[in-house]
Amino acid sequence: MMKKNCLLIVMTLSFQCVFSQIGINTPNPQGILHIDGQKDNPVSGSTFTPAQQANDILVNSAGKIGVGTLSPTVKVDARNSGNGAIGFGTSTLTAVAADEGAIRYNNGVEYSNGNEWLPLLTAQPASNKVIVIAAKTTNNVKLASPATPTVTAGLQNRASNYLVDWSKTFESNSGTTFNAGTGIFTAPRNGIYVATFTTDLAPMAINYTTDPLNPIQIEAIWQLYDNTAGLTAANIVNTVKCANTMSSNSVGNIDAGSNCTASFYMTAGQRLMPYIWFNLNNSNVANFSLNNTGGYNNLTIAEQ
């Protein structure tokens, strides 16, 4: 009985020694598990060409996995001289359920911080980042809605004045992300964009009785729309308003101006447009003008 037990132990140790490394399609495994997809590896030695490694999968003694490489330096390593891209799928898991560190694709790569899914921004886009600079030297606006088909040659008190007919001073990459005619900027890709514009009305007398519901002020506003063609209230994604209050009555004509700077996370195809609203006197006709001399009315949009 003692001899049988000893024989069994020896056989077990021999089995573990023989199969300490497993090779599939290769008699020359380089790790705990080595799969040679094309059966093109050398039968001996440790020199493998990049082409031979490209179709291999290896698990080493440290538990690191190499895909297309036999020398993984991180837990999962797919770096090689061929196709080292890794594909991520979509997931309906909440960020809490997926836990922090999880990655998914959702119209862009996102990661979980344990509470919410956040976009994983690229360090550098394929082309140079977008920069747009434009100036406005006309009084042309679209009143009430940017979807209004007609352009009005004059701004109106207590109305939304969407600024159109800009003069583009500069746009990087000779691009077309900013339509100077419509005043609409379209994001070419997912990312963060910083937008700023200044506006100044021609000198006027401010004489309006103070109304708590409609304070004496001029507002510079950025409106972010979705990536469809619509420009209605249903298409609005976000609105940022910057207000500059004025005294209720002025002795003489004064300039009334405002500016607004905001950062937006935009997905490809979303649109951004500036407009102004002001409540400065009792007139409700489109007879107001911008201060079109001196370069006061400008717009800048920069991709971060």
Provide a descriptive summary of the structure in words.
By secondary structure, this protein is mostly beta strands. 8% of the residues lie in helices and 37% in strands. The protein contains three helices and 21 strands. Strands 10, 11, 12, 14, 15, 17, 18 and 20 form an eight-stranded antiparallel beta sheet that branches. The chain is elongated and about 95 Å long. Mean pLDDT is 88; it is low at 4-18.
Note the overall shape.
Answer: elongated
Oligomeric category: single chain
Separation, N- and C-terminal Cα atoms: 78 Å
Strand content range: 35-45%
By secondary-structure content and strand pairing, the structural class works out as mainly beta
| Count, helices | 3
Low confidence ranges: 4-18
Q: How many beta-strand elements?
A: 21
Q: Could you describe the largest sheet, including whether it forms a barrel?
A: 8 strands, antiparallel
| Helical percentage | under 10%
Helix/strand order, N-terminal first = HEEHEEEHEEEEEEEEEEEEEEEE
Rg over CA atoms, rounded to whole Å, is 32 Å
Mean pLDDT: 88
Short structural description:
By secondary structure, this protein is mostly beta strands.
Question: What attributes characterize this protein structure?
Answer:
8% helix, 21 strands, 304 residues, mainly beta, elongated
SSE blueprint:
Layout: H1 2-18, E1 22-24, E2 33-36, H2 50-53, E3 56-59, E4 65-67, E5 76-77, H3 95-98, E6 103-105, E7 109-112, E8 117-119, E9 131-135, E10 140-143, E11 152-153, E12 161-163, E13 167-171, E14 178-179, E15 184-186, E16 191-204, E17 217-225, E18 236-245, E19 254-266, E20 271-279, E21 298-303
Parallel strand pairs: 1-2, 4-5
Antiparallel strand pairs: 2-3, 3-4, 6-7, 7-8, 9-13, 9-21, 10-11, 10-12, 12-20, 14-15, 15-20, 16-19, 16-21, 17-18, 17-20
